[in-house]
Design brief:
- The chain is mainly beta and 214 residues long.
- The chain contains 3 helices and 18 strands.
- The strands form 4 sheets. Strands 1, 2, 5, 6, 14, 15, 16, 17 and 18 form a 9-stranded antiparallel β-sheet that branches. It has a 4-stranded antiparallel β-sheet with strand order 9-8-7-13, with no helix packed on it. It has a 3-stranded antiparallel β-sheet with strand order 10-11-12, with no helix packed on it.
- A hairpin with a 2-residue loop joins strand 7 and strand 8.
C-alpha cells in the first residue's frame, strides 16, 4: 500500500504541487467569499462573489492562524470579512469605528467622535449617501417594523472594531454581536469578481463582474 501511494505521489507530484500552491494562496494571500445575505446592499448583493485581500492586515502561515507579520490596520470605510465567534459565521461589514473612536447613532444618523454624518438622497427612494469625514458610500434604509436605529455613544476598545452593514436597518452587526476583535478579521473585501442572481435562475448579473468595492 505504501509503495503504491509513493508511486502515485511521484506520478502526480506536479498536479499535487499546483493544488498545494492554490490552497496555500487562498489561506494566506487571497480568498473569495460568496455573499448569502443582503446586509450590505446596495453595494454588495446576494450572490456576489467578492475578492478578499487576506494580506491587507496580516501575513499568516498557510493553513493556520499564526501571524508572521502585521501589514496594516483596518480604517474607517473599508469593508472587512471576519469569522465571528459571536455570530458563529463568516460576515462582511463596513468598518465604522476603530480603537478609541466614540460612535453613536440617533434616528439612523451616525456620529463619529461627536461629528454627525451628512446624508443626501440616493438614486432610489430607499437609498441615501452617507458622508463622513472618512468615507462616502451609498446606504440602504429598508422599511422594517423595529429598526435598531439608535444607540448611545460607545467607545471602541483597543484591539476591536465597530462594524455596520450598508443595509442599515437589516444587518446583524456590532449593534447585535458587539465589537469585532482584530484577531477575527480575515481580510479586506476589494471587489466583486462575478455575481449570480438567484431570483433569475442564477444567471450572471451584467455590470457586476470585476467591479471595485474600494
Amino acid at each position: 500500500m505504501n509503495n503504491r501511494l509513493t508511486a502515485l505521489i511521484k506520478e502526480n507530484w506536479g498536479f499535487l504541487f499546483v493544488m498545494f500552491l492554490l490552497f496555500a494562496s487562498r489561506s494566506t494571500f487571497a480568498d473569495w467569499y460568496t455573499v448569502p445575505s443582503g446586509s450590505m446592499q446596495p453595494n454588495i448583493l446576494i450572490g456576489d462573489r467578492i475578492f478578499v485581500n487576506k494580506m491587507a492586515y496580516s501575513l499568516e502561515v498557510p493553513f493556520t492562524d499564526i501571524v508572521i507579520a502585521k501589514t496594516g490596520q483596518p480604517v474607517k470605510g473599508e469593508i472587512v470579512v471576519f469569522k465571528s465567534k459571536q455570530a458563529d459565521e463568516r460576515l462582511v461589514k463596513r468598518v465604522i469605528g476603530v480603537p478609541g473612536d466614540k460612535v453613536a447613532m440617533h434616528n439612523n444618523v451616525l456620529s463619529i467622535n461627536g461629528l454627525a454624518s451628512k446624508y443626501q438622497a440616493g438614486p432610489r427612494p430607499e437609498t441615501k449617501w452617507e458622508i463622513t469625514q472618512h468615507y462616502q458610500t451609498l446606504m440602504k434604509f429598508s422599511s422594517v417594523q423595529q429598526a435598531f436605529d439608535a444607540f448611545s455613544e460607545v467607545v471602541v476598545p483597543a484591539g476591536h472594531y465597530l462594524v455596520l452593514g450598508d443595509n442599515r436597518n437589516k444587518s446583524s452587526d456590532s449593534r447585535y454581536i458587539g465589537f469585532v476583535p482584530e484577531a477575527e478579521i480575515q481580510g479586506q473585501a476589494i471587489g466583486v469578481y462575478f455575481s449570480l442572481n438567484a431570483n433569475n435562475h442564477y444567471l450572471p448579473r451584467k455590470g457586476r463582474w470585476f467591479s471595485s468595492l474600494l
